[in-house]
Amino acid sequence: MPNLEHPAYPAAKLLQLESSVPCRESQVSLLLSIFGEREQFSFPSIFIYGHRASGKTYVMRTLLNTLELPHVFVNCVEYFTSRLLLEEILIQLQRYSEAEQTSHVPCDTLNDFVRLFKQAVTSGELQYQTLYIVLDRAEQLREMEANILPAFLRLQELTDRNVTVVLLSEIVWELFRPNTGCFEPVTLYFPDYSIGHLQKILSQNHPPLYSADFYSAYINILLGVFYMVCRDLKELQHLAALNFSKYCEPVVRGEANERDTRKLWKNIEPHLKKAMQTVYLREISSSQWERLQCDDGEPGQLKGLSAHTHVELPYYSKFLLIAAYLASYNPVRTDKRFFTKHHGKIRKTNFMKKHEKTSNHLLGPKPFPLDRLLAILYSIVDNRVAPTANIFSQVCEERTGKRQKNCPTASLKSRALPELCQSQGEDFSVIYSCNMKGNDD
């Protein structure tokens, strides 16, 4: 019995949709109930959020294309200004218009967009059914003019047309809401895929030359190795396609059959260890990786760019450790002096003699609140840091196992930071000078 049922759409289309979006049936069913029938007015705006690679963009594209609903799909990273964004929406609307199409639609202001949008929707098939405008990577709207986001949330009211705006983002709605208030959208959360969901999704892509059980066993081995360090569906799909040829080698040579999992595991284990060193890094192309797999040499040792004595940390994880180190050893009163550009006049105080002081490094790291950690992080990173779910998930992982509530990453990692900086091969002398100045206070 199909899980998706809706009287406005054919059962064959719903069955095709259900097979195309595995493990997202509940979210699709909720979206269908919000959309209603084609001629009905849907909710003015919908906000969908979740971590990266949780299926937000894929589900929306598949839903709109399978049910053949009129829609406009725009990536806000590609069209990073309000003018480019509004013009792209109008250009995509031309394919539903009966009039002669033009390649460029000039649109300088939001008033022009509302006027041109009314004209485009009135003619053609759009006047009898709902139009869906999907804005992917919608967090970029916060960088545009202040009236863009409230206008999209109220576009149905401004244009008096049957239109629904869908925002897709990796951050929560509370970080979108303007201070002056706006129309509240319907929020829908896409949770991360569990290991069972990943197993089911990845197993659907089995090659036709091999059985589904054989490929499912390979995916089970792959998830057993990588699930603790990588839960990104796109990255796991890349790893599965890259290493499957090595898993099949004993079968191709006739040394084992598809059910001899022990021999297959022994053959693939060293290659999965190599792949573990380059998860998310993309240091080499797939063709270079295949050539490295064919080279003879010590298994488990990569001859490419990752053949260093260390593995490079992710960008924000490195700065999170540095911020935790500075927060745990520097007093709170020194933050304004070292981490703000215009801190004003500093009042001089009487200091103790150097030989009478005890170094903070001997006393050990001190606990600090999470807000202070994030404030230092934002000040030491050159570019602007968006408070995305990825950063907060890294902070939560650092806090795992700590008993003190307000000590996120203080003790163990901050002691190891000098060795970390030395292994990274980078110059953090400025940070250490700031830290030592802070200790002098």
How would you describe this structure to a colleague?
- With 441 residues, the protein is α/β, with parallel strands linked by helices.
- The protein is built from 20 helices and five strands.
- A five-stranded parallel β-sheet has the order 2-3-4-1-5, sandwiched between helices.
- Helix 13 (315-329) crosses helix 16.
- It is flat, with a radius of gyration of 27 Å.
- The N and C termini lie far apart (71 Å).
- Mean pLDDT is 80; it is low at 296-302, 304-309 and 401-441.
In brief:
The protein has helices at 11-20, 25-35, 56-66, 82-93, 110-122, 148-153, 155-159, 195-203, 212-226, 233-253, 261-276, 286-294, 315-329, 335-339, 360-363, 370-380, 389-399, 411-415, 417-424, 429-440, and strands at 45-49, 71-75, 131-136, 163-169, 186-189. By secondary structure, the protein is α/β, with parallel strands linked by helices. The longest helix has 21 residues, at 233-253.
Which helices and strands occur, and which strands form pairs?
Blueprint: H1 11-20, H2 25-35, E1 45-49, H3 56-66, E2 71-75, H4 82-93, H5 110-122, E3 131-136, H6 148-153, H7 155-159, E4 163-169, E5 186-189, H8 195-203, H9 212-226, H10 233-253, H11 261-276, H12 286-294, H13 315-329, H14 335-339, H15 360-363, H16 370-380, H17 389-399, H18 411-415, H19 417-424, H20 429-440
Parallel strand pairs: 1-4, 1-5, 2-3, 3-4
Helix pairs in contact: 4-5, 8-9, 9-10, 9-11, 10-11, 13-16
